[in-house]
């Protein structure tokens, strides 16, 4: 599926296996290619929207130019994770009630980037 984030088209893809820097991860955001990837195991879990929101917040962070500030990646992670958790708590979209996009799981692995 695609998401418009601050006027830019981002691709969201679902992968069977995802490793970033040798570690399993449930999601990653690649600002250079405007790709968000979510691991298929996470798709049907209660954490799906929190994970998707986490990666979307990284995308918003990038599209807002905040990655060009002196806020480091560690602080970005803390902010993004806290906002994702809080937004998920407020809006609490149930995985059963949510209108799901067509989700196609593809084989693949993160090619670059950090666990963002
Ligand atoms: Zn992150």
Could you characterize the architecture of this molecule?
With 116 residues, this protein is of the alpha/beta class. The chain has a single domain, classed as Orthogonal Bundle (Arc Repressor Mutant, subunit A), CATH 1.10.10. It is built from 3 helices and 7 strands. It has helices spanning 40-43, 48-63, 73-91, and strands at 2-5, 8-15, 19-20, 23-24, 27-30, 35-39, 105-106. The strands form 2 sheets. Strands 1, 2, 5, 6 and 7 form a 5-stranded mixed sheet that branches. A two-stranded antiparallel sheet has the order 3-4. The longest helix is centred in the last third of the chain and has 19 residues, at 73-91. Mean pLDDT is 83; it is low at 111-115. Zinc ion (ZN) binds next to α2 and α3.
Summed up, the domain count is: 1
The helix count comes to 3
Characterize the overall form. globular
Kindly provide the name of the CATH class: Mainly Alpha
Any idea what the radius of gyration is?
Answer: 14 Å
The hetero molecules present are: zinc ion
Low-confidence stretches: 111-115
Largest sheet: 5 strands, mixed
User: What proportion of the residues is helical, as a percent range?
Assistant: 25-40%
Give the helix/strand class.
alpha/beta
Q: From the coordinates shown, what is the CATH architecture?
A: Orthogonal Bundle
pLDDT averaged residue by residue: 83
| H/E series | EEEEEEHHHE
Spatial separation of the terminal alpha carbons: 20 Å
Strand residues, percent: 15-25%
Looking at CATH, which topology would you report? Arc Repressor Mutant, subunit A
């Amino acid at each position: 599926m695609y998401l418009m984030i601050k006027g830019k088209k981002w691709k969201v893809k679902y992968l069977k296996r995802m490793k970033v820097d040798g570690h399993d991860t449930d999601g990653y955001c690649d600002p250079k290619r405007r790709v968000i990837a979510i691991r298929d195991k996470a798709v049907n879990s209660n954490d799906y929207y929190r994970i998707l929101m986490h990666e979307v917040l990284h995308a918003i962070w990038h599209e807002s130019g905040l990655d060009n500030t002196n806020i480091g990646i560690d602080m970005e992670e803390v902010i993004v994770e806290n906002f994702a958790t809080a937004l998920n708590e407020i809006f609490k979209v149930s995985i059963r009630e949510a209108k799901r996009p067509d989700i196609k799981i593809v084989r693949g692995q993160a090619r670059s980037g950090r666990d963002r």
